[in-house]
Here is the input.
Amino acid sequence: MSTDRETIREWADEHGTIPVRHQEGDAEGYRFVRESEMGETHERVDWDEFFTQIDEGDYVVIHHGEGADETFEVTGRRDALTRMDLEREEMEERLLEGETVRSEITETTVVERVIVEHATVESELIDTEIVDQQVVDVDLLRRECTDCELVDDRGVDEQDLFDTNRYFESIGATDYATGEPMGALGPGDELPYHAELDVKEAWAVTREIDERLTVESRIVEEDVTETDTVEDRDIDIEGLQQTIVESDILDVDMSADEVMTEYDVETDMNEDETILTYFDRQRLVEDEVVDRRRLRADVVEGELLGMETIHSEDVAETTPQEEGVETTTAGATEADTSETGTVATSDAEVEADVAETGAITLTDDEIGKTVVDSTGDEVGMVTDVDDSGRMMYIDPEPGIAERIRAALDWGSSDDDDLPIESQQIERITDEAVELKGADEMEGSVGR
Here is the structure.
């Protein structure tokens, strides 16, 4: 007699029988028969259902052995024990009469499990990680040059870059010293500067991301129906997973059904009885990326489109020349005229001119100094100094430009910086440039 599942199945397999539901009148019971012996009153049942009925109906299976009318019998436990007592009396009588009695007893130990009817589980998202990612597509959206500048490469005489022939032609000169002609730039021509470009590119980048979300769950409370030794705990894994996705733990913009469809879900039980549930999926992300770079470009070809003189003025008085020496329009000797067309003035001539005119030689050190009139009032700031050292330009204070232009008869009030000749300067200090009085300035104009 046994209720042990493995023992009962071994008995049935040895004899080639299966469990069936047997209907006899209004009575219903269970039997073991061979498949070939199944009749109209028999209905086959699977083993799980059969053992469920064994547990709920408090049945036992009796193996009567070979030669019996019915090898197996399924009956109630109480009835089987009562019959066992009668058989023991019969065996005792037979033993007293000297017969040898053979009997086999199968003992089955039943260990009850704790049956958990309700468990309270707390879950927490403990990790969100990108396991892997890769770029799957890129698309250039736009490209633009945001800045361009010319950068000097080496110290080269600038006069070598100026086309004196074209210059004299542009001003209508007929008698001039011929310089080195310059035309279109060829592959062998080198310039002492290069262009640097700031380029901005916008890209659409698509990347594929392998993402994993990890949720830790822990049982914090249980309601049980029995308190015997626990051999195992059955966890409703699918129910736990469904509870997690229906909550706000994952913090994803998806419904619970979409999460269960798009994520691969796996649950593991740790030794400390915590439960880890992993949600894995692939997703595509498109980023707009702005890439900034500085490019260097060498000039390899070009052409001169035209030349014009936009401003011309005398920068110094002419000085007496030695007899028999031909002078140029600017008052310099023909020998002193350079290829660029500018007049070369010797240091002695400059000193003589300063002594004669009382002019102050200006330098770049004056740029940024405050300009004041003869009364000490601020009239502007020095913005530039001419290369000749005889002219500076000031950015006037509002209202001052009109008065200075009116006094010196300079152009309209719409012009920008005002030119001031060195003859109109009284003195220069470390902090300021002081102009002469109005009468003195008028008298020095055009000298």
About this structure: The longest strand covers residues 116-152. Residues 5-96 form one domain. Confidence is low (pLDDT under 50) at residues 321-355. The two ends are 140 Å apart (CA to CA).
